[in-house]
Structures are given as structure tokens and as C-alpha cells.
Amino acid sequence: MKRLQLQRWSGSVLSAQARTGGRLQQRLYTAIRHQSTASPAAPAGHDQLIREQPQAPSIRPSRPSQSRYNLPSPPVEAARESAKLASLHARLYLPSRLPLETLARSLVDASADPDPNFNNESLATLGHDLLTQYTSEYLVCTYPRLPLTVVFAAMYAYVGPKTLAAMAKEWGVESVAAPGGEVDPGYLQFRRLPPGAEVNPELITGTERPHEEETHWRKSVTSRVVYDNEYGDPVKAGVPPSELPEREAKNNNLGVSHEQASSTFVHALMGAVYLHAGRPAAKRFFEQHFLSRHLNISDLFNFSSPARDLARLCARENFDAPVARIISETGRKSRSPVFVVGIYSGADKLGEGAGASLLEARFRACVASLKGWYLYSPLNVRVPSSMEEEGAAPWKPVHVDLGEVII
Amino acid sequence: MAHCIAAPKRPLVALPFLLPSPCESIALALRRNQSSYRRTKQRLRVKPDASFGSSLTHTQEDHIVHNPPSSAPSVYLTPTKFLPSGDIRRNLRLASVKNNDAEALPPVVRAPSEKKYHLTPSDIREIRRLRATDPMMWSRLKLAKHFECSPIFISLVCETSPQKKEIQKRVLEAVQSRWGSKRRMAREDRQLRKDAWGRDE
Amino acid sequence: MPIQGIRTVASARNGVGAFILQCKQLDFHYCDWAGSSRGMVAYLRHHLHAFAKANPQIEIRVSPRPNKHPVIRGVFVNGREKVICVRNLEPEQIGKKANLLREASGEKLKRTTKPVTSINESVRGIWSPYHGGLNGV
Amino acid sequence: MRPSLRLLNLEVPSLQGSRALYVCSGCRQEARPRPIAARQFLRHASNADSLSERVRRKIWGTDNPPGEKDPYGGQGVLERKFSKQQPPKQEEVAEQPEEVEDLTLTDASYEPATTWAGLERVGHLNRWNDYPRSEADTYESFAVKTKHNQKGPLSLAAHQAAVEICLMHALNKPLVSVCDVTEHEKPIFDMIYECKIQPNGEWSKALEYPNKRTQDTLAYIFEQIGAQPAAPAAEETAEDLVEASELEENGEIADEPASDSQDAPFFGYQDVQDEGFLSLPLTDAVTKFAYLKRFSQLSGHYFPDPIMQQISTVKQAVAYAQGELNKKPKKLAEYLAEDQRLLSLPNVKIFDKRRTTLHRDDEMGRKKIIEAALRARGLL
């Protein structure tokens, strides 16, 4: 199975001595290490993996409950006693191969427990990448002509931090007042921001973008693909592993917002499902909880000059130049006229719009025509990750055309 | 009449022949309580429209009534012209739609201006010179009229001096300073409405 | 920039993909001594395990509340709580009350005038007088 | 007007010097020393020169005005407490014995009544509370002071009672008189301990002595018990002590417990040697009454009438004392905590105590914040 191969790769290649890889690899390593140590209920298939692991650090020795106040997060054995955790497991229809211990771990934010063996950071990194991959391939294959800015907005709407925080709330995940070893592991544990702290810092500095100090320079959409994150937001540059500890120590004094902690939890849960139950379960989890949400993509567009865009589009595609025609109208000389204007290219109607003035109707008709172009969706959409299933049909290339109009 | 309305409704509906007289108000009151089956049947009895399709001649046979919605088309319905050539829907639609070229297209909003492409590089140099020497005299509109082109073309070719921009800005401020609150709000609202066009709200 | 994306949040449709039961916690309170808890004690002894087994997604907490009437408290995903006093009720009636809390959404009760509400777009669109088969006057 | 006007000045320094760093505003108001002028109007009847006392003196014109000293009730609770600590005043002590003597000496033909019939009044004529404790006031319980609940002491008590009743049967003496001696001396108890009971169903023949000498000694002792009151019995016990010491020298007592456990119940013995007494029947009403009385005395358990009706063997009596016959109803939490069907479900939690806000705070990690805040303010 491919999943096992991945784990074998990470377990054998990335030993504790030669851990010079990037941050992602390091986190993957810690995630695997956790799985081998803190999941006594793991199925028998993992035994081989456990043997392959390099010397895994032992879990924390069990201590009496008095000293739980000294722990930064609940001990591993507390997960079995928590009814909250068990009910959350059942409420989300999580696969039974995902043990409660891992679910408890995915609820511990890095701000609560800085130890990477016990917080969800590594799981969240994996889950974040999975979520963005699944969402982006769904969007790109379903709407192949979608402009990139709208793809960014759709990604934000599907797996953005606000959505994930709302999702965690809809799952019934409550958060603790302050993290500690005595709290119920069924709560989301993170250190809260001090009162009055700035939640959204306006300017993110320290990105990898060249000339980032030139704020008035134009940022092309293409450069946002390269330098920015999946929502088109600037992202902080990675830190080499040698500087990792002191930076984490600096960050741990600060808290995180509830939104950020919730989205980290959802990411980590996705990663945990993938690690324990495999790819099909992870895809099912994604489809049931993420793709099933309602999003009207046509509401994400904001045009500034649709007539020019449409003219450029028709010129590019060798259509006849678009012409606005009045389909119907009423009350032209009255206080509240209504015009219905259609955009025609030759004899074919591209779209129509109604407005209180001819200008508005034409504008709206152009918007409708452009949306008709951008929201094209091929039949029988398949995503590339469906090829990973057993016995998948041979891959047919998805529809790709020139897509977005670039002025 | 009052006691008729107050009477239990269901028996009267069930036994319409017991009604004493075809009183209009009772009939109206009873129509509200028709069973949904009858109501549905009645609604379906619509007059055949020309848009229903070509199967009007064979009404005896089973046929599909195509009754297009009386609403603006959805944006998710890609126009046939925008469908890529490999899409199966393109051929299906082309086959089903009759070739009605004979039907005249609706009137255009504004006749597309014929592009003349008559200006030479020397003309463009002249435009730039005129605009640089006397920006107050040679505005965009005047130049467009003089050279028989569109003002947009003038703005593509040359740019006005910063002094002219500053003067224009002052003039605009002077005009706007005379606006009262009503006019200012109306203008702002108009701009907001215009912004909403692009979001299709 | 010709087109800008508008940032929104995809809205949840509970039950379209996964169905999240809105009742997340049920607290059963009883009194060991008082007679009004007789039915509740019998319910907890004989019927609770079946209810808990059928609803693994509900966290069930049983705790005494001495010298008070027995109550069932339901905590819901939306943060609200519903409490039902089950004094002097028979175990079967208490089971019905527990089921009532289980199936509740947690919202305040309100009259539903329309049987169906949907965020999906209408199939035939919103009717407009300027579309459809326009017949000349 | 504050209700605590009777607060003594003595109280004030103790409040002010208390360890509490924080005194709430109400307490601070109470604890503040009052001005002298205001204190003069305090109506302290216990103070000799209180306002009311001085007014009375002035009205009557003498230093010793007639009438009640304090017409508004006695001392306050606090005053009484303080006056108890201080030595009582001389005059009050002097008065009381006179009254008592009056009572006792006036009537030479005084005879204490045994029943209430014909008495005009039942109870003490004066305020009995005010007199010091006399000989008659000391209470000695019929039963032992500590109630035995463990199996070992209860069996020992049942065995001892059975042996004694058997002895009385054999000696043909009134059975109930075994209760005259609550606790025997250690050598006698040792001998009783050594005795065995054959479960043959006959009280008079059931007893089996370890040797002849024990039989003679026990018979001698219990011959004494029913006949005379306690004073000769004490002498006998003294004699027995000598005999018992001889017994000890002979080394016949096998399992002699440590000597430091003298004050322990049953002299440190843990359990009986044989269980034969359990099968003894309690069908005869006199025997049953005597046995249960003695057993009740030794074990400290009270046998209500319905239970006494039910009991027909010694075994049942012991079972009742062990709490097996009518147990306390089991708590639901204990029952549920043993229910395997519920224990196997991970989403069920059962608590045996009421859940309070404090529990929830602890669960959510808020408790430590609250405690830290309270500590920072010196409230904890």
C-alpha cells in the first residue's frame, strides 16, 4: 500500500541523526514517531512499522494526578478516560483505526504544548497540504477556466481559516480557558491571546518575495502563485531548522487566536485521518465535511471593466465582436425603466442582463457573459487524486484552455 | 350568507351538489380549499405555447413539453458558443436548435462605430505636440473631434501635463464644494450602486 | 486588475455530506433518596446503556443531585442548553424525553410556516416579466 | 442599628491581629474600636457599672437596689463564654451549696422515689444545669462504648456470650445475670476463649472445656456472678488473677497476643477458634433474650423487635450485627460503576458526587487561573 510506503520512507530515511531536511520533513518525522509510540490501539499492520522506527523516545512516564497540573497538556493515557473525546470521535464518523490518543493530540495546539511530540503541529502540516491539494484539484478540474483570483477566493471559502474555525464550532469542539495537564483532552487546547492583542497584523514582513519593501509596486497574479499562499496572502519565509528552537521559544510566549487554533485542529485531524486510516478515508472525510459545504462560485467575482474583458475575450477566441442588443424594455421615459440587454456575438447570445439604465443593463449583460465563460464546467469531472485508488480507469486529461482573460 | 361560510367546509366540498345556489362568494371561499390534486391538475391545463416545441401536431402521442422558464438564464448555463469543441453538449444543442436566422435579431443599443485607422505617425506626433504646448486649449475631447478619433485613443497616445491635472482637480473640488448633503449622498449612492454592478448584486 | 475575488465562507449544510448530531452532551441528574427520582433511577439502571450505545456521539454524564428533582440537561452544538425536569416520570417517559433532547437542534422553538427552506438556487430561476415566451400585446 | 452591639471589646484586638490580610468592609466596620462616648451607652448587664445598673442605683438611692440585676435576659453567649474561662465570682459559689443543703437536710424522711406514680412533679426541683456534676449524673452505658462492625470482634462477642449462657445453663442460674459484668478480666476471657461449643443443639451440654481446671474455675466464677453484686465478684477476679497467672506459667494458652494490646477490644484477639456456636438455636425465648442481651452488650449492636422475631439461631444474630440482614441501600452511582454494559461504553461518564461549577472550571483549566488570581489578592 502506498501509505505504508510513505511511512517507511519517512521512518527509514529520516533518522534522528541525519535530520537535515526541511521543516515539512521534520514534522512528518515527528508525526510518525508519535504514531508509533502513543497509539497502543493501532492495528496490527503497524507493528512492522514500529519495529522499523529508529529509537523512539519513550512516552512520558505516568504520574499521579496531582502532578498533572505541572504538565502542559493532558497525558496520553487521559484520552481513554474522556467521554468528550469519544463522543467527538463518533460524531465526526472518524474511522475506528484512528485512536482516541491521536484525536487528543490533534486537539493540542503548539501554543499549549511546545513539545513537538505532543502537539498537533506536525499533523497540521500534513493535513494542511492534503486539504489544499484536494480543494485546489477539485476547483481547477471542475471549473477549468476560473481566474486565479477567484480560485484564491474559492480556496479561502472552502478551507480558509474562517471556514475551518466555523467547522470546528459546528462539530461541537469547545476550547479550554487555559491549557494544562488537568483539563479534559476533549477540549481544544491553546494559549489565548492576551487581552487587547492585535489579532490581524496588517503587514506581514519577512516574505520570500523580492523587493517586498516596495509596497506600491504592482504585484502580478502570477507572482502570487509563486510567493503567496493558497489564498493569495503573503506568507512568511521558512526558517532553517537550525534556528527553529529559538524561534519557537519566542512564539510560545504569545498565544494564538481561537480562529487560528481551530483551523490548526481541523488541519491536524485531516492529517491524522490520513495517517491512520489511509488515503481513501481521508478523501471521504474531505468530501463529507469540506466539499459538502455550500459555496456559490458565481458570487466570488468582482468585475471592474467587463465590457473590455469581453471584447478581448472574443478577439482572442476569434468570435465576432460582442454587440449589446435590447431584448426588451419598459418605461424608458418613466422614473423606473427596465432594460433587458443581451450581448450577442454574431447571431449567438452570450448573456443578458437587466438594469435601470442601458449602461447598467449592458454592464450586467457583460458580467453574465463573462461568468458564462469562466464558469464552464466539463461533464464527468475527475480529479488527479482519483487515480490513486485501486483499479482506477485510465486517466483522461482534464480540460485545459486559455482560460482567464489577461489585459 | 354568513351561515353558509360558517358551515363546516369539508362536507360542502365533498358534496358540491348539495350547495343551495351557485353563490359567487361561496364559490370563491371554497376554491381556497380545493384538494391539491385538483389544484395541480388545473394549473397544468395551460394553453399550448409556441415555445413548447414542435410536437404540437402530434398531440396524441407521448411527447415532452419544453416550457422554458420565464427568468433570466443562469450563469452556470454556459452559452453554446463558449462550449469547447470537444464538449458533447455543444453538438446536442446545435442539433436541437432550429436554424432561425430569418428571425431578426433585437436592435442594438448603440451602433458600433466603424474604426477608420486613418491616423498616421505624424498625426500622432501632432496630437502630442498640441497637447504639450497648450493643454488648456487642446483638451481630449477637442483633439478627438479635430482628428476624428475617439477620446480614448487620445488618452492612449498621450498624457496631459501635471499642471493641467492639478487645475482640473481644483475645479472639481470647487464644484463639489458647492454640493449639499443631499446631492453628495446621491452621488455617493450612485457610485456604490455602480460598484455593485460588477459584483452582480 | 480586471477581476477580483470576493472572500466569503462556505456555508454548512448539515446532512448533505456528514450529519452532525446537534445534541452533544446529555447530563442525567438524579437523587438517591427522593421518590421523584424513582423512575429516573430505574431508567439509569436498565435503559441507559441501550440509549448510550445507540448514540455514541452524545457524551453522557450521570451525576447525583441530592434533594432535587431529577433532570436531563442537553447541551447542544450551538451552545444552548435545554433542561427537562423528569420528576415522577416512568422510565419509558424518561426515555422519550431523552430522545426529545437528542433530536432537538438546540434552537428555540419557533413556528415553521414553510415546510422547506433551502439555500439552493431555484431550478427555473426567479420569475421575471421580461423573459420567457413574450407575446406581443 | 447593627445587631452585634454586644460584641465585646475583648474581641476587637483578636480580629485586628488575625492572620487575614484582607478584611472585608463589613468586618472592618465591626472591628474598628468604637469611641469611648458611644461605648458608655452600651447596655452591658454583666459589667458591674453598666448604664442600667447605675440608673437603678440612682433611682433607688442605694448601692444595692432591689429587683433583678438584669431585667433584659441573661448574659450574651460571648460573655458567658468569657466568664467561664475566668474564675467564677465568690458570692455565687457561696450561695449554691446552701441551697443544696437546704433541700437535703430539711426532710429527714426523704426517700427517693422509684416510679413516677404519686409524684407531683418529675425532675429536679431547681435548675439542675447549674449544679456541678454529682455521682448520680455520671452515665455508664450498658453496652460497650465502641460498636464492633468487623467480623472478628463480632464472632468473639458471640462466642463469649454463647459460652457464658451455656455456663449459666449448666449452672442452672438466671441467664440474664451474665450481663452484670460487662467485661471480664483477661485470664477469665482467655479461659472463655479456650472453650469450645459442640453444635449439638443443647445449650446446657454444648460447652466443651479444654481441661478440668478451666471448667472448675469458670464454674466457680459464674457461680459468683448471679448471687452477689459486683463487690465480691471483684475479689474473686483478684483470686482468679492469681490462678490465671499460674495457668500462664503452665503455658497452656497457645496464642497469647502481645501485652501492649491490653486496651484493645477482646484483649487483642482477632478471631474465634471454632465456629460451633453459630449453630446454637435461639428457639427458647428466655435463652434468646438472654443471649441477645449479652451479645448486644458485648457488640454494641441494638436488636429491634422485628429483627429479634426473625432471629432463630446465633448465626442470624451475628449476620444481623454484620449488617447483612438489612443492608443500607446501595447508591446508584456504585451500582452503575459496576455495570459492565456502561463501563464498556466510552461516551458514558458516571460521577458519584454532584458536579459543581468548580469541577467544570477544573476540567476547562479555569480553576488554576482563578486560584492564582485569588492568591495574588491574598484571599486564599
From TrEMBL, chain A:
Molecular functions per Gene Ontology: double-stranded RNA binding; ribonuclease III activity; structural constituent of ribosome
Entry keyword annotation includes Ribosomal protein: yes
Chain residue ranges for the region called Disordered: 52-76
GO process terms (BP): RNA processing
SMART domains per record: RIBOc
Pfam families membership: DSRM_MRPL44
Assigned keywords, A-Z: Mitochondrion, Ribonucleoprotein, Ribosomal protein, RNA-binding
Origin superkingdom: Eukaryota
Compositional bias annotation for Low complexity: 53-68
SUPFAM superfamilies, sorted: dsRNA-binding domain-like (SSF54768), RNase III domain-like (SSF69065)
Subcellular location: Mitochondrion
Domain (RNase III) ranges: 85-173
Primary location recorded for the protein, binned into one broad class: mitochondrion
Family, per entry: Belongs to the ribonuclease III family. Mitochondrion-specific ribosomal protein mL44 subfamily.
UniProt-recorded name of the protein: Large ribosomal subunit protein mL44
Naturally occurring in which organism (per UniProt): Aspergillus heteromorphus CBS 117.55
Automatic annotation (TrEMBL), chain B:
InterPro entries: Ribosomal_mL58
Positions of region (Disordered): 49-70, 179-201
GO cellular component, as recorded: mitochondrial large ribosomal subunit
Basic and acidic residues bias locations: 186-201
Pfam families found in the cross-reference section: MRP-L20
Gene Ontology molecular functions: structural constituent of ribosome
Protein name per its UniProtKB record: 60S ribosomal protein L20
Organism: Aspergillus heteromorphus CBS 117.55
Lineage: Eukaryota, Fungi, Dikarya, Ascomycota, Pezizomycotina
UniProtKB/TrEMBL annotation, chain C:
One of the record's GO molecular function terms: structural constituent of ribosome
Ribosomal protein/NADH dehydrogenase domain segment(s): 32-105
GO biological process, one term: mitochondrial translation
Subcellular location: Mitochondrion
Keywords for the protein's UniProt record, in alphabetical order: Mitochondrion, Ribonucleoprotein, Ribosomal protein
Main location: mitochondrion
Gene Ontology cellular component list: mitochondrial large ribosomal subunit
Keyword Hydrolase assigned: no
PANTHER family per record: 39S RIBOSOMAL PROTEIN L43, LARGE RIBOSOMAL SUBUNIT PROTEIN ML43
Family: Belongs to the mitochondrion-specific ribosomal protein mL43 family.
Descriptive protein name: Large ribosomal subunit protein mL43
UniProtKB/TrEMBL annotation, chain D:
Primary localisation category: mitochondrion
Coiled coil: none
InterPro entries, per the entry: Ribosomal_m50
Keyword Ribosomal protein: yes
GO CC terms, sorted: mitochondrion; ribonucleoprotein complex; ribosome
Subcellular location: Mitochondrion
Secretion signal, residue range per the UniProt entry: none
Taxonomic superkingdom: Eukaryota
Keywords, sorted A to Z: Mitochondrion, Ribonucleoprotein, Ribosomal protein
Family, similarity comment: Belongs to the mitochondrion-specific ribosomal protein mL50 family.
Name of the featured protein: Large ribosomal subunit protein mL50
Native species: Aspergillus heteromorphus CBS 117.55
Top-level taxonomy: Eukaryota, Fungi, Dikarya, Ascomycota, Pezizomycotina
